Amino acid sequence: MIAWQTSATHTYTQKHNSFPVSFAMEKSSFSNMKLLMTECVSCVCVLGEYHPPPSPPTPGKEEGVPARRGSDGKLRGRKRVSDPAPPLDSDIERVFIWDLDETIIIFHSLLTGTFSSRFGKDSSKAVSLGLWMEEMIFNLADSRLFFNDLEECDQVHIDDVASDDNGQDLSTYNFGSDGFQSPAGAGSLCLGSGVHGGVDWMRKLAFRYRRVKEIYNTYKNNVGGLLGSPKREEWLQLRREMEVLTDLWLTQALKALALINSRPNCVNVLVTTTQLIPALSKVLLYGLGSAFPIENIYSATKTGKESCFERVSQRFGRRAVYVVIGDGAEEESVAKKKNMPFWRVSCRADLEALSHALELDYL
Ligand SMILES: [Mg+2]
C-alpha cells in the first residue's frame, strides 16, 4: 500500500493543517474519478428552525412512484423523464461507509459525559438532552417500528426476512392480534442465530419488517408527520438544543452526506452497532432519512462490522472504491484490514474537513 500523497494533498494539508485520517491508498484508485458535484450544498441550521440540507433523489425517494406495467404484464421499472432512475449498485464508483454514533450523531457521549468533558460543555445539560433523545428513540421504536416485537429478532438488513413474506395486502392487517407474541415466547425462537419459528411465524416477522420499511419510506422526509403533535414540537426543540450544544455537529455531517448524495455514482451506506430498529429510529429522529435509503442501512449488532463491510463490498462490487468514515476502533481496524481508506471523526472540525475534501474532489 502506498501512502496517498499528491500535490493536491500537500496543498490541502498546508491549508488545513492536517487530514484527520490515517489515509492511505493507491493514488491510481482515485485517478479516474471525476468531480461531478454541484455547487457547495448550503446547509443551513440557524439556531431556530431546523433545515436539513437538500439532497438529490435517492433510490428510496423513488418509493411511491408506480412501476409501469407493459402489455405483457412485466414491470418496466420506475424511470421517469424528470427523475432518472438511480444507478445500479454495479454502476456505483465510490461507496462511503459511515458509522453512526459519535460520527454523524452525538448521542451516547452525551449520556456518558464524554462529550461535555471533552468539549467543555454543560454536563447536566448534555445528560438531559441525551436522556430526552433516548426516550424519543425508544418511544418511536416501540410505538411505530415494532421494537417490542422485534428486539429479540434483530436483523442486519431490512430485507433479510423478505423471502418469508407472501406479499399479502397489509392495509387492514391487525398486528396487535396476529399472535406473533405467542405464550411460547417469540423471543426464544429468535435468540439463536439460524433458529427460526414456523413458516407462519416467520411470515408475521416479515410483515413487520415490511411495514417498518413502508413507514421509513413514507416518513423519512416528514418525521414531524410521523410523530404528530405535540411530539413533533418537542422533537424540534430537542433537535435545536442538541445542535446548539454540539456546535452544529449534525449539520456538518449532513453537509458531507449531501455532497456525497449529489454525486451520481457515489453512495452513502450506514453500518452501525445499534440494533436495526433503534438505528432506524435514530436515523429518522436525527433527520438522516434523506441521506440513507433504508436499503443502505446495516446493523452490525449480530455479526460485527467486518461481516457488514464484506456484505457491502459484495453488493457494490470490486470496481467500487470504499471509504470508511468513523470514530471507533472497530471500523478503523476493519477498514485497514480491507485496505479501505479511513476518515477518522474525532471532533466537528473533522467533518468540516471532510466536506472540504469532498468539495475539492480529494475523495
Ligand atoms: Mg461510533
From TrEMBL:
The keyword Transmembrane does not apply. GO terms for molecular function: metal ion binding; protein tyrosine phosphatase activity. It is found in: Nucleus. Residues 52-86 are annotated as: Disordered. It catalyses: O-phospho-L-tyrosyl-[protein] + H2O = L-tyrosyl-[protein] + phosphate. GO terms for biological process: cell differentiation; negative regulation of extrinsic apoptotic signaling pathway in absence of ligand; positive regulation of DNA repair. Its EC number is 3.1.3.48. The keyword tRNA processing does not apply. The active site is at 99 (nucleophile), 101 (proton donor). Mg(2+) binds at residues 99, 101, 327. It holds the Pfam family Hydrolase. This is Eyes absent homolog. It comes from Amphiprion ocellaris (Clown anemonefish). The lineage of its organism: Eukaryota, Metazoa, Chordata, Craniata, Vertebrata.
